[in-house]
Amino acid sequence: MKAMVLTDIRQFQLKELPKPSIINPDHVLIKLKAVGVCGSDIHYYTCGRIGDQVVKYPFILGHECAGVVEDIGEHVSRVKTGDRVAIDPAVSCGTCTQCRSGRSHTCEQLLFLGNPGQLQGCMVEYMIMPQESCFTLPKGMALNYGVLVEPLSIGIYSVNFLSGLKIKSIGILGSGPIGLSVLIAAREKEINKIYVTDKIDDRLLIAKNAGAQWTGNPDKIDVDEKIRNNEPDLLDAVFECCGEQEAITQAIELLKPGGTLFIIGIPTLDQIIFNVHTLRRKEIRIQNVRRQNNCTVAAIDLVNKLKNNLDFMITHTFPLSKTKAAFELVEGYKDGVIKAIVGFD
Fold this sequence. Notes:
Rossmann fold; alpha/beta
């Protein structure tokens, strides 16, 4: 089978690898059709690491994927041969304290696709996954839409933290795929006062068309002043979706006393800094978001509901042989890219 292998910083090689076979009776063989390029993939591509997770070459990247079931183990019951599926890239043990308490996404033995020291990624023609990671797509849903299920599940999970809170206004700092996923999920919760920032004007236009009430570029305007003019009491919650220190600092300033900062973006830095006095005086809550927890089905339902209204998320497609071009495009924020997808056909 063909596989796109990362061999060094910014270096891919297209290789032939043995096609995997099912050994575990609960496993599924998937013929992959579409793989999304995520910001975390870019970190590994350009830096070879995220924090203490360091790539050992050769390595296969990718975790946002959809495909067709090629074969199943004898104990598999949730999918059948020929089913079109989206993949949850996290494989949890199901037995540790975290899993038993309903937190499988922070499993003590979690294995994640395309994560160094855990599982090879999905930039391959065929892949084996446990049946619990396979989610059947509705009839007629394009497999490219199946790739959106993973980032949208993060958006849904993030917005679910607002349940039970009195929320009138939120901010989203960074309108890439994750920021837009939070925006889409927030609009589904009928949150109307949504303020979105980004340093790329094209992305702000997309956010505006997707339902943001206000958008602004912090490189061009005083975002704090503009938002304060509209929201004198400031914002109830801010979702930091770009992994930048300056955005985290700005989020604290934009939050009202008692507000909540949600950290979703993955920083390139090992440490970030907070103004502890502002945090203390405002009694700001900080909620880190670790991917998603049991939101894959909800994400599939949302994709199926919105369908063509999500076309703005998928801006570029590439064949497997052009994977490097896809990564360079996403890394450089070129040509209005939101989500680039690598296909196998």
